[in-house]
Amino acid sequence: MMPLMKRFLSVIGLLSITCGLVPLAIAATGDLAGAPAPLTPVISGPGDIAVGRTLVLDASASVGLGTNVTYRWYRDDLPQPISRTVEAVFTPEKTGISTIRVVVSTTLNGEVVEAETQKSVTVYERKIVLIADGSIAPDKLKTHQETAAEAGVFLRILQPEIGGAPLGAEESLVKLIQEQSSALNGAEAIVVWTEGITGLQALTRALEQDTERMQSIKNLSIVLISDRSLKIVGRTARVPFSVLRPKQILVTRRVAINPLISSQTIEEFVTELEKRDNEYLIVDASSTGIRPWNLLSSLVNYMLTHGVSSQTVILLLMLPVIAMILAFLKQVIGVTTFGLYTPSIVALSFLALSWPIGLVFLVFIISTGYATRAIMRRWRLLYIPKVAIVITVVSITLLLLLGLGTLFKIVLARDTIFVLLIMSTLSESFLNVKTEEGLYSAILGTGETILAALLCVFIVQWPWLQSVVLAYPELILFTILIDVILGRWTGLRLVEYFRFREVFKHLQEE
To answer: Among 64, 91, 123, where does a domain finish?
Structure first.
């Protein structure tokens, strides 16, 4: 074991040196950056504007400015500048794509330097924003965009790029919407086309802290495209509706996109759906009222409308389901885990972090805890101080892992640290079992705990299950009934039939 420990400690030392070299490299770059930066004009401002609205573009973010700075703004092929200040203000009078060019002139080290850049601005009469996840083929979206352009409609598409950090579909959409929230400006409708209500949940999470943007959403209609049961999806959409408070959420099929583009108003769009006999369901204020038979749904809505994160509510609703699955695995299957609390916490951690990232962190937490405990064996310390040292080393390891994650552009939520510290409880359980029953039992228990947690994650992440639980949160009360049935289980576990197979053979022979 000592060579393995030395190898592990050398890896940790290498990580420490690497993280220490990064700031030095940055500092060195900063020293080299003392020389004047080349002149690089930057145009800041919206990339689209409605006809007749005033557009303001700004070049103050340009890099490498010296003294005697002058600006010349040109629009399309016009020879005369439209502005000679740091800002360009104009009002487009026709639709299309307008090219804005700025020429920046400045004096650097006694020499006059000039550079230019340009920006394309889409001028529209009608604008629709379409939010899609990776399950929708980009070719389909491009076809709809071309159809909209032919009808004189600017269809702005928000779809995360394939690749990058291994974030979940919802996390990628949340990040995209937060970064490009200005794309919602001027839209007459928002189309959400994703698996289940993933896009609607992402839109809710991205905007629930943006008060100004939430106010603009109240005047819009959201069109939710789904291939599932409209009744279930519509009921699930009540929770995001209670947070966003748009004019209405219209749940329909993908064939409704073209009628939406060709219709001048949402009312005309609904009429067109009725003429074509297309399925649709409207979620508005009249369908989200409090009723005696949906008190739990009303409680969920109340929490969401009073600042509780939608992700927190989903995790709380999934916790009884996770506990029920684990109880089934332990009582009927015979899976050996570190109790019920630890795998439940690990499963919730995997849900919050995404299971690949959570699994990597968990392996490092257990390995670091075990190595630290092995090193302290010769020190003859008492139990409580020893655990305190293990927690300290685990915290340093998590800090190093988070630092390495930023190098690969894996940025986790700000409350991730609490999730990671909760995951460290598995490390303590591992060490306790290892002390009492040996290394083999500890590894076996840890492996079964992780596998049980992963199984819970895969089941709970099933989009249909999430949709049903969000639509009918009262269903989680049935988990109590199932737990009672499991509590009355008196038969052998399935694993025991395999373990005692030789005994059963002798009984049959007798």
So the answer is: 123
Confidence (pTM): 0.65
- Reported residue count of the chain is 510
Percent of the chain with pLDDT over 90: 25
Domain boundary among 305, 336, 371: 305
Q: Is the pLDDT of residue 422 over 80?
A: no
- Does residue 249 sit in helix, strand or coil? strand
CA pair distance 248, 374, nearest whole angstrom: 61
Q: 3-class DSSP state for residue 152?
A: coil
Three-state DSSP state, 466: helix
Considering only CA atoms, which of 227, 225, 224 is closest in space to residue 248?
Answer: 224
The closest alpha carbon to 248, from 275, 263, 270, belongs to 270
Asked if 56 and 189 sit in the same domain, the reply is no
Mutual angle of helices 355-375 and 439-460, in 10-degree steps: 160
Q: What CATH number is associated with residue 287? A: 3.40.50
Full residue range of the structural domain in which residue 381 is found: 310-498
CA 415 to mean position of chain CA atoms: 13
Beta strand pairing call for 96-108 and 111-124: antiparallel
Average pLDDT over residues 280-305: 70
- Phi and psi angles of residue 129, each rounded to the nearest 5 degrees, phi first: -100, 130
| pLDDT of 163 higher than 50 | no
Sheet holding 67-75, edge to edge: 48-50, 111-124, 96-108, 67-75
Indicate the pairing of strand 55-58 with strand 87-90.
Answer: antiparallel
CATH number of the domain to which 116 belongs: 2.60.40
Contact indicator for 440, 336 with CB cutoff of 8 Å: no
Same domain, 270 and 414: no
Closest among 43, 101, 54 to 74, alpha carbons compared: 101
What is the token pair recorded at 92?
A: 């487009």
Alpha-helical runs (H) found in 281-382: 295-305, 310-328, 341-353, 355-375
